[in-house]
Structures are given as C-alpha cells and as structure tokens.
Amino acid sequence: MSADIVICGLGPAGRALAHRCLVRGMSVLAVDPHPHRRWQATYAAWTDELPPWLDEAAVAATVTEPRAYGHRPHAIPRSYTVMDTGRLQYSLDLTGATVIAGRATALGRHTVTLDSGPTLHAERVIDARGIRRRPGAAEQTAYGLVAEHADRDVPALFMDWRPDNGADPGAARSFLYSIPLGDGRVLFEETCLVGTPPIALRELARRLQHRLRARGVPVRGDEQVERVRFPVTGGAPGARRFGAAGGSMHPATGYSVAAALAAADGIAAGRPGPQLAARTVYRLRQAGLRALLALPPAELPGFFDTFFDLDIELQRAYVSGHADLTGTVTAMTRLFAALPGNTRARLAAATLHFPALSHPGAGSVIME
C-alpha cells in the first residue's frame, strides 16, 4: 500500500497534518492504534497562534484579556481561545484518507512497518505519535472540574498562584487555571506545571476542592472531571517528526496543539521551517525547564510576577516563538536580569547543569 504521505499518530497534530495534506490533494495513509477515539482533553491557545484556516465552529470561547496572579495581579493583553474539543476533531476532516487501525513498529524515510506485518510506502513518512511517558521524565499533571456558572462572572485565570488551596507552605506549588468553555460552563483546574515527579492527581483534587470552597464556588459533586498527565520532554525538532514528537511541546508550559495547527500547512507543503533555529530554541527552553525545576516553591509566584511584567511581545516570543531565536534569547535575558539575585544564582546554576545549587524540594515544581 502506498501514498504521497504516511502519518503515524492521529492526535491533534497528526490529524491536523493529515487534513491539510488532503486539502492539498495529496494521498494520505494515517496510522493510529485507536483512530476513531474521541478526544477528551480541553485545548486552548493564544488566539494569534491559530491558523486562518481553522473552522470557527471549533472555537468554544475567547477571552480578550486573561488574568494571572503571582503575589499580585496581572492583566495579560493577549486574546486567549478555548477550543470545543469535539468540534475541533470533527473539523479536521479526514475524508479521502486511508485510515489504518494499528501500531507502527518501524519508521523509515519512505516506509512504515505495522505490528500486523504489512509495510506501507510513501514519498514522506511523518511521526506524529506524541511523547511517551518515561520513568523520571518531567510531567505536567492537573485535576479539573467543569462547573455550570451561567449566572456568575467568573474571571478567566491563566495562572493563579495565590496560596488558598490548602497546601503546606513548603510543599510543591500548584496554581489554579480557570477558563470558560462556552454555554455557561467553566473549567476549574488545579495544575502542577511540571514536576519530576509531578504532584499526584489525588493531591491536586484535594487542593482544588479546598480552593473552590475558600472562594465560595459551589461544587455539587456531579461535575465532569478532567484528569491530565503527560510528559513535557522527549520530542525534538526534525524534518520527519511533527507535533509533540517534533518538539512543538513547550517544555515549560506543556502547550503544543496551537503550534502544530499553525505549522501543519507548511509541513503539508514540504516546508519544515528553520530547523536549526527551532532546535536551538528547543534547547533554550530545555534550559528554562531546568531552571524552573531548581526554584524553591516559595520563589515561584515571584518568578511569574517578573515574567508577566515583561513586555507582551517578549512573553509571546518565549511562549510561542518556536523558531524565534532572537526573541527567545531576549525574553530570557530580560527576565533573568529582572529577577532577585538569589533567584538568578539558582537559575544560572540549573541552566549550566550545576545540580548542587538546586533546591532539594524542587522535584515537583508547578506551572501551566
């Protein structure tokens, strides 16, 4: 069996790429162990990251100016979009593709061998299977509840580090992420941005319940639950890898879907983008991840106060500029210079791989 392209993996990245290849008139073979499984996660993105071809029906809600809290409040002057997961999946139409339920056991430049035996042939082979969990790898965890709040003015909180979740003062920190889902629904999610190991889901659930009670948010007990756990490292930019497998996952935030959507057209057209710049930015972000993991829990809110004080274009460069080497370096340099001296010392040691100076309790750092 042969085609113009074989895409292994039909998560958001692989499905988006397959869809854009079909739009270009290409023949597509798509391989996934469960190709028709419905997506359950909530996906969101900065609005300016989303490609113009995305179906408007896939948008559930848009927040003009989300808020963040470290020790003090911040208004983020950048529109934030929450996707309707079901409509997003449906809008990435695969009509015309040959979809195979199976696992790829070997990927070559022009061939894919399936666990059932057959070998597929194509001009191009793309690995979009995401990142596998590995012992000791940094992971993000979150526990969320979907509540009905049509009659309440619930603010959109991108990241809220205020200490009203009942956690011990010296424990690994987590923050609240709350966003509208449309139709009067709101997702409240207690999030461990990244940890090695991350905060357990049961502890995040306890913290979320405590935080919601402290803020007077009613919880009936029958709310839809969202559980999140995934690795944030393991992929790397490459011409034959795409999505999280290809380094689009930001290791210090866990965001990847918008980057994959935005890049899908270029990959479909055979334009992989500036690989050298992307690889360098990815290594810088890995250094940023090590820096976060080195910070004591008490210093995290102040760190993010400093980050959200940066000019929005510098925030955008670090969070969204996957091949913006100049912007990434400038953002990291400005952030470093604005931090207190003791925090700068920890970050420098972690970035340069001096583990003796890192904080002993930083194995479960948090962020969103």
Short description:
With 368 residues, the protein is of the alpha+beta class.
Give a description of the structure.
By secondary structure, the chain is of the alpha+beta class. It folds into three domains: 167 residues, FAD/NAD(P)-binding domain (3-Layer(bba) Sandwich), CATH 3.50.50.60; 93 residues, 2-Layer Sandwich (Alpha-Beta Plaits); 84 residues, no CATH class. Helix content is 30%, strand content 25%. It is built from nine helices and 16 strands. α1 runs parallel beside α4, α5 runs parallel beside α8 and α5 packs across α9. The longest helix has 20 residues. The protein starts with a strand and ends in a 17-residue tail after the last helix. The C terminus is likely disordered.
How helix-rich are the residues, as a percent range?
25-40%
Total number of beta strands: 16
- List segments where confidence is low: pLDDT < 50 over at least 5 consecutive residues: 354-368
| Sheet with most strands | 7 strands, mixed
What percent strand? 25-35%
- Terminus-to-terminus distance: 42 Å
CATH homology superfamily of the largest domain: FAD/NAD(P)-binding domain
Q: What is the CATH domain class of the largest domain?
A: Alpha Beta
| Average pLDDT over all residues | 91
